[in-house]
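tokens incoming
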């Protein structure tokens, strides 16, 4: 089985505010982040595609206890977003007070951008992560 999209390339695209996924040629499902096989049907026949970054919030949580080395970044809100093209993606929600996050966030439209985080003792170096902002 051939790897179509390596995480390194996915991460580099994120740093340029591009979201890459793998579109299954068998069923049309888009898989994000990159995997060896389709998340829906298991087919390895996939092609790299750029994915639109608009979506809506499906669920969220607010983090009050930071990970080691990031204790001073709390609180922050993490959302799971259903993108317009189908896949679900997790990322931080910016532009709101995390302490005020409430059930009203569910279903709100968002747009993705990215933020680059420095590496730590558990990672191989800096990495880009999706971040979302509410759209009016």
């Amino acid at each position: 089985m051939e790897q179509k999209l390596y995480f390194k390339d996915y991460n580099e695209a994120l740093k340029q505010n591009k979201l890459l996924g793998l579109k299954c040629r068998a069923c049309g499902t888009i898989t994000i982040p990159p995997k060896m096989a389709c998340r829906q049907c298991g087919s390895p026949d996939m092609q790299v595609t750029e994915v639109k970054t608009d979506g809506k919030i499906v669920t969220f949580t607010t983090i009050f206890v930071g990970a080691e080395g990031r204790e001073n970044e709390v609180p922050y809100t993490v959302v799971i977003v259903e993108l317009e093209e189908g896949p679900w993606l997790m990322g931080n929600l910016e532009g709101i007070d995390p302490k005020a996050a409430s059930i009203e966030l569910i279903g709100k439209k968002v747009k993705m951008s990215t933020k680059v985080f420095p590496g730590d003792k558990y990672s191989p170096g800096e990495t880009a992560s999706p971040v979302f902002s509410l759209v009016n």
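note: DSSP finds one helix and eight strands in the chain.
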